[in-house]
Amino acid sequence: MRRGGRGKKVGMPMNRKNSRSNACLRVEGLKIERDQNRIIHDLTWQVQKGEHWCILGANGSGKTSLLRALTGYFMPTAGEIFLLGHQYGEADWRDVRLELGIVSSAVRQMMADSEPAVISVVSGKYAMIDYWGEPLPEDLKLARRILKQVECLHLEERPWAYLSQGERQRVLIGRALMAKPSLMILDEPCAGLDPGARENFLQFLQRLGSKRQAPTTIIVTHHVEEIMPVFTHVLMLQEGRVLCSGEKGKVMNSKNLSNLFSAKATLRQQGGRYSLAVSAHSQRIA
């Protein structure tokens, strides 16, 4: 890829024009190399408006590198990225990021300890960390409405330092929603949560994603238990390659997960939720 992120198209093109026009994210032939190491191999993928995707893979599978490329923090070696109607290399990705809702550990760690939750939410409109100045009345009004939506209105004056991990994740989602994003990306949002807090947060995600105006959502995880019923599709990444991708019911099975995690895995499903039993020291399934 030439300087500025624009390069030759690589990989198979998408087939349907209407599918392309309805896609809020489209990746074609994406390659990422660093220090002669191939991190992402010819990845082609698209996300349609209204879908909710899970990117599933083991540690080191390329999940984080893919997200960094999509958000413009990692320059691809080759391929094309189309995000919310913008093409990488043709648009200023700093502006494109303002149209995204991003929840990650990097954002969580930069928040100011003394900042009240309502101001943390307001800051999302301007993609700011450690918001300063007097917030506009209309921004405060919208932030309080969003705090109610993420079930945290009672926390509006509580400083960041005194929020629990689960509360922080909800406030960060509120912060992401403040920008009225068409696409929201959650990078391992349950990391660091104890089992009870994780389940409470997942149930909250289920309620949020089921709302009519919910943005298209991508969650990144390596736990099948975190794939709530509201998620419609799964992309499985292994060593920088797409192992399989598609509707959740078609790709979530024991064989695919055994291959994904290089272990004998048995997938169970009950009430729209998944659990996985893995046998130690087993060989990769062919």
Q: Based on helices, strands and strand pairing, what is the structural class?
A: alpha/beta
* CA radius of gyration: 19 Å
Level-1 CATH class name? Alpha Beta
Q: Give the SSE string.
A: HEEEHEEHEHHHHEHEEEHHEE
Helix share, percent:
25-40%
Based on the coordinates given, report the CATH architecture.
3-Layer(aba) Sandwich
What is the fourth-level CATH superfamily? Answer: P-loop containing nucleotide triphosphate hydrolases
**Strand order across the largest sheet:** 6-7-8-3-9-10
Gross morphology is globular
SS summary, helix count: 10
Number of domains as seen in the coordinates: 1
- What's the mean pLDDT score? 88
Task: Give your account of this protein's structure.
The protein is an alpha/beta fold. The protein has one domain (17-252): P-loop containing nucleotide triphosphate hydrolases (Rossmann fold, 3-Layer(aba) Sandwich), CATH 3.40.50.300. It has ten helices and twelve strands. The strands form three sheets. It has a six-stranded mixed sheet with strand order 6-7-8-3-9-10, sandwiched between helices. A four-stranded antiparallel sheet has the order 2-1-4-5. Helix 5 (117-123) runs parallel beside helix 7 (165-177) and helix 6 packs across helix 7 (165-177). It is globular. The model is unreliable at 1-18 (pLDDT under 50).
Q: Which labels suit this protein?
A:
29% helix, 286 residues, globular, Rossmann fold
Short description:
By secondary structure, this protein is an alpha/beta fold. It has a single domain, classed as Rossmann fold, CATH 3.40.50.300. About 30% of the residues lie in helices and about 30% in strands.
